[in-house]
Amino acid sequence: MERKELIKQMDFIVELVCDISHLTRQELFSKARQRHLVDARRLAFALMRELFGLPYTTISKYFGKNHASIIHSIKLHKNLLEFDAIYRGRYTKIFRLMYQKYNEEVIDFLKDKLNDEKGHIINTLREDTKIL
């Protein structure tokens, strides 16, 4: 994948996460450790990894973080999806926005990807969104 397309994909995820979390791009990229900021970053990391299969190092360079921080955040993301309803709700809202902006072919691709990687979590997302 060429660099320009890669950055476009990462910018797309950042824009969605900022919209859902009511944050500016500057806030998302800040070093602040407030829970709502950390959760928003975690969502962005996980979506970049899950939807586009980006390597940890690529995500870490984009955000100016250590790759180990990305790995840790994504591990925590999986637990939060299962046990934190508010966090799962934000994650679900991102898919609603994608559904509104893009055709069903993209959503079907995302569903297949999530089914392969998440198994039991996709059922919860399906119930929450009524679109998956």
Overview of the structural elements:
The chain is mainly alpha-helical and 132 residues long. It has one domain (3-129): DnaA protein, C-terminal DNA-binding domain (Chromosomal Replication Initiator Protein Dnaa, Chain: A, Orthogonal Bundle). Helix content is 82%, strand content 0%. The chain is built from 8 helices and no strands. The protein has helices at 3-21, 25-28, 35-52, 56-63, 67-83, 85-101, 104-118, 120-129. The chain is globular and about 35 Å long. The two termini are 28 Å apart. The model is unreliable at 117-122 (pLDDT under 50).
Please give a handful of descriptors for the protein shown:
single chain, mainly alpha, Chromosomal Replication Initiator Protein Dnaa, Chain: A, 82% helix, globular
What is the arithmetic mean of pLDDT?
A: 81
Largest sheet: none
CATH fold-type name? Chromosomal Replication Initiator Protein Dnaa, Chain: A
Counting structural domains, the number is: 1
**Tell me, what's the shape?**
globular
What low-confidence regions span 5 or more consecutive residues with pLDDT below 50? 117-122
